[in-house]
Structures are given as structure tokens and as C-alpha cells.
Design goal:
By secondary structure, this protein is α/β, with parallel strands linked by helices. Helix content is 19%, strand content 42%. The protein starts with 30 loop residues before the first strand and ends with a helix.
Length: 165
């Protein structure tokens, strides 16, 4: 039956669609070292870091992303979950997840990572070791066991020396 526009029965509300229930993703916050800064020493953190300045020493960001910006210059050993290089790095890089060297980036040093991505035009001079997660866990377990072993041998030497007296 046709009704005039003003006499139409009320329409049921439209069911919610996936498009209307989208959540807004906030941009990831990260610490930043600007172009005019020079840091000499050890940088340790528990948040993502963006470097556009100069760092000499070492950088440890376990479980976080380290980004070397276009103007960034780093002479340091790097340890992070993910490393993105768009500037210049001289030093060894250890990533628990991924290393990415962009086309304008350069790295002179050895790499240990699960994944590596090198764009055309990027520079890499050094060795690369790609490990699976299982290989990393095995090496860590072996390293921890090796730390425990010297202490035990010292105890046994001391016991043997005491028994010989």
C-alpha cells in the first residue's frame, strides 16, 4: 500500500554494520632525538625511539621499534625488536623480529634478525644471520646454561681443594 511521505509508518533502525563499528587507531607514540642532538653513551628504553640526531655508544630497546631517520647518524651497536634504517648506522644490529633498510639508508656492521628487508639503493656492508624464533630460544638457553656451568665448576674445585686438605 502506498502512503504519502508524511503518513509513512516509522522504519525500523538499520542494523549496525561493521563499517560503523570501526575503532580509530591512535598513532603510535615514540620518543624522538632531534637533528641538533648528539648523545654519547648508552641509550636504554622501553618505548619506540626515532633518531634524527647523532648517537655514539649503544642502544637497547628490547621489545620496541628503533627508527633511524633520514638525518640520523648512529655509531653504535643496536638491540631492538624492530629496526628501520633511513639514515646511517655503523655498528652491529640485533633484532628479535625485523630489520628494514630503506633505499636511502646504510648499515656497516653485522646483522642478526628473524627477517630482513633491503630496498633497492640501500647499502649493507657486513654479515647477515637470519634466525628463526626457535634458534634464538635455543641459543639463549645455551647461553644461560653456560653462565651457570662456570659457577658449578668453581664450587666443585673448591670442594676438591677442601677434600685434599
Amino acid at each position: 500500500m502506498l502512503y504519502p511521505a508524511e503518513n509513512q509508518p516509522p522504519k525500523a533502525p538499520a542494523p549496525a554494520t561493521k563499517a560503523s563499528s570501526k575503532t580509530t587507531i591512535q598513532p603510535m607514540e615514540q620518543a624522538s632525538i632531534g637533528q641538533s642532538l648528539l648523545i654519547k653513551g648508552e641509550v636504554i628504553g622501553s618505548e619506540p625511539l626515532y633518531i634524527d640526531g647523532h648517537i655514539e655508544g649503544s642502544i637497547h630497546l628490547a621489545g620496541n621499534r628503533l627508527t633511524i631517520g633520514h638525518h640520523g647518524s648512529v655509531i653504535a651497536n643496536l638491540d631492538a625488536e624492530e629496526v628501520i634504517i633511513m639514515g646511517s648506522v655503523k655498528g652491529n644490529v640485533q633484532c628479535s623480529e625485523r630489520l628494514e633498510i630503506r633505499s636511502e639508508g646504510s648499515l656497516v656492521g653485522d646483522v642478526v634478525s628473524q627477517r630482513i628487508s633491503i630496498e633497492d639503493g640501500a647499502v649493507l656492508r657486513g654479515s647477515v644471520e637470519v634466525r628463526t624464533g626457535a634458534q634464538k630460544r635455543d641459543k639463549d638457553a645455551h647461553h644461560n646454561q653456560a653462565k651457570a656451568t662456570p659457577g658449578e665448576s668453581e664450587k666443585s674445585k673448591a670442594a676438591a681443594a677442601g677434600a685434599g686438605s
